[in-house]
Structure formats: structure tokens, C-alpha cells
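Module 6 notes. Inverse folding takes a fixed backbone as the condition and produces residue identities as the prediction. Think of it as a translation problem where the source language is geometry and the target language is the twenty amino acids. Below is one complete input and output pair. Work through it position by position during the lab.
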């Protein structure tokens, strides 16, 4: 008899801002474990704004979910049973399956074995996970970051943005974050050690605020918001500047996202704009993870977690992301960390 588990599935396609009522918790029996598979008990699951792209029933860069499908998410879990030659019971793994208390995996696709326990498990769903790697490769591969540059990061208090700004700082750059509210901006210039922070909610002229914060111009814009924000920064971009399109959180809940207006600067200033899907960089993750882990362990990169308890907390935590309520990486704890239990 297979393992009984609870999962969050898509109850209705989402039009506009997400609501907890768009999801449903169901109980399902997983199939019996086959050769080449292992059973995972999830410890932490991620609550990411990027999940929104799959919930409208419309094509995105990855296929949309159908009604009744398990909602995809990143998670960290402990293997409790294995019939796979490369994974054993007791291994801790990060994988991309979904909002579920238990999962069966074939060990394919995105999966990382976690062996460095200097840091809390939550770090592997943030600064050492997809968020941190998006920041790392967006700056190093796409932007070609160099010492002495000025970098503007939007949605800078989020998991990706805060990692990007701190990586830029460690590379000798001047870093300006754009975020909403004094709490977020204070954290950026305090714990995260950004050089400056712009509270977009308090600014009537965001374009002027960027010019004031970056009087020598902007070399790299690392954008997580969308075209309206990009348009406000383009007038401050230096010649040969690079715009990294990491996310478009402002466009996830609408089919009518604004276009870019200040496109003439792409010619006059020889600007480059490029997006990234971080899984293209998987072959290089191990080295980037190691270097990021060293920075975090040395106290050179700060991060904030918001961890709720139980599968029931996930839908509301997800909806709150789009109301701007989060003050860090949102996760839900579904089971205790076995390492912490052993150390207690």
C-alpha cells in the first residue's frame, strides 16, 4: 500500500491577484515505490511569486497547470525510503516537485543533495537555491559584472533581489535597491549593506529618485518587477549598460502589461537587455553554491525567512506575496529538520 499524503492542487484558474480559495488541499495515496525511485518527506516548501505564471491556464515559459494538478514548488526533504542506486534513506535533497507533504522522485530534473550543514536548511531554498543562483548567474553570466560599477536592483528586499544586491556589493559595486516601505529599505541599507535604497511607495517621481541616487549613472539594472520599473531606470543608464530581466512580479496578475517607452536609449546608449532561466546554468551550480555558502557562513550575505507552519498556511502565504506583505523569503515548514533534532 502506497504512502498517504496531503497535497495542494489548483482548484480554479486564477484571473488577477491570487486568493487562498484558488487552491484545495486533497489527500492522495502515492503509488508503490518502483525500482529507480525514492520517497521524500518534505521538511520545507517554498512559496514563490514565480509560481503565479503557471496558474492561469495560459502558456508561459513552462506549461500551465490543469485543474486538479499539484501546484509546483521547490522543497527540501528527507528521503525515507529508496529503491534508487544513487540516493539512500536519510539523504537530504532539494527538488522541484510541489506543495506536498510527501513526494516520489525518480532523481531526474532539478535535484540537489544537501551535505553542507553549516547553514539552516532554509538557506538552500533561498540564497543557496534558485533565488541565489538566479542572482549569481544574472550578474556574472548575463551582466558580466565588474568592480566599480553602479547596480540598481528592483524588488530588492525579495529573495532574488537581496541576493543580487549583496553579490554586487561583494564584487566592489555601488548598489542601490528599490523596494516598498521604510522597513524594507531600512533592512537593505542596514543588514544587507546596500549603499542606498529608494522607497518607490514614497516617491512621486521615481525617475528623478534614481537619478539622485545614481548621479554617475547606472551600469546594471537587475529587474524583478517589469517594464514600468525598467522605463523609470533607462534614462539613468550609462552607455553599454545592461538590463537583466530576472522576473516580472508586477505583470504576473495581468494580461495587459505595459510596454517599454524609452527604447531610443537602446540605440543611443548601446544598451543590452536579456532575461535568464537559471536552470540553463545547472552545470555550473555546484561552484556557485560553494562560493555563496562561504559568503553566507562568513556573515557577508544576510537574508530573511518568513516560515509558516503546516501545509494549510501555504495558500494564504502565497496570496500575501502579491499584497506586498512579505519581509523575506516565504517558506512553510511541514516536518522537523532531522539534523536539528539530533543536535537538540
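Target side of the pair, the amino acids:
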Amino acid at each position: 500500500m502506497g504512502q498517504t499524503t496531503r497535497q495542494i492542487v489548483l482548484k480554479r484558474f486564477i484571473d488577477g491577484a491570487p486568493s487562498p480559495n484558488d487552491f484545495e488541499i486533497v489527500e492522495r495515496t502515492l503509488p508503490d515505490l518502483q525500482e529507480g525511485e525514492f520517497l521524500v518527506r518534505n521538511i520545507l516548501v517554498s512559496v514563490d511569486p514565480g509560481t503565479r505564471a503557471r496558474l492561469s491556464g495560459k502558456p508561459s515559459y513552462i506549461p500551465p497547470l490543469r485543474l486538479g494538478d499539484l501546484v509546483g514548488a521547490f522543497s527540501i526533504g528527507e528521503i525515507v525510503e529508496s529503491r534508487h542506486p544513487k540516493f539512500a534513506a536519510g539523504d537530504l535533497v532539494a527538488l522541484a516537485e510541489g506543495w506536498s507533504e510527501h513526494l516520489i522522485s525518480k532523481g531526474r530534473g532539478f535535484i540537489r543533495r544537501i551535505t553542507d550543514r553549516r547553514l539552516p536548511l532554509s538557506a538552500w531554498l533561498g540564497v543557496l537555491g534558485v533565488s541565489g543562483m538566479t542572482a549569481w548567474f544574472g550578474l556574472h553570466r548575463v551582466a558580466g559584472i565588474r568592480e566599480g560599477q553602479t547596480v540598481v536592483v528592483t524588488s530588492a528586499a525579495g529573495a532574488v533581489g537581496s541576493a543580487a544586491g549583496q553579490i554586487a556589493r561583494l564584487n566592489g559595486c555601488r548598489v542601490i535597491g528599490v523596494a516598498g516601505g521604510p522597513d524594507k529599505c531600512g533592512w537593505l541599507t542596514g543588514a544587507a549593506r546596500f549603499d542606498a535604497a529608494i522607497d518607490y511607495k514614497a516617491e512621486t517621481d521615481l525617475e528623478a529618485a534614481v537619478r539622485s541616487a545614481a548621479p554617475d549613472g547606472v551600469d546594471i539594472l537587475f529587474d524583478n518587477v517589469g517594464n514600468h520599473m525598467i522605463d523609470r531606470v533607462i534614462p539613468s543608464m550609462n552607455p553599454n549598460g545592461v538590463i537583466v530581466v530576472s522576473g516580472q512580479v508586477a505583470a504576473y496578475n495581468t494580461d495587459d502589461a505595459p510596454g517599454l517607452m524609452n527604447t531610443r536609449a537602446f540605440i543611443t546608449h548601446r544598451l543590452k537587455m536579456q532575461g535568464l532561466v537559471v536552470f540553463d546554468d545547472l552545470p555550473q551550480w555546484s561552484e556557485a553554491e560553494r562560493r555563496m555558502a562561504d559568503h553566507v557562513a562568513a556573515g557577508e550575505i544576510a537574508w530573511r525567512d518568513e516560515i509558516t507552519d503546516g501545509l494549510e498556511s501555504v495558500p494564504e502565504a502565497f496570496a500575501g506575496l502579491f499584497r506586498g506583505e512579505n519581509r523575506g523569503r516565504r517558506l512553510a515548514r511541514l516536518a522537523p529538520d532531522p539534523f536539528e533534532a539530533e543536535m537538540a
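Reference fact for the lab report: The chain has two domains: 4-126+303-343, 130-279.
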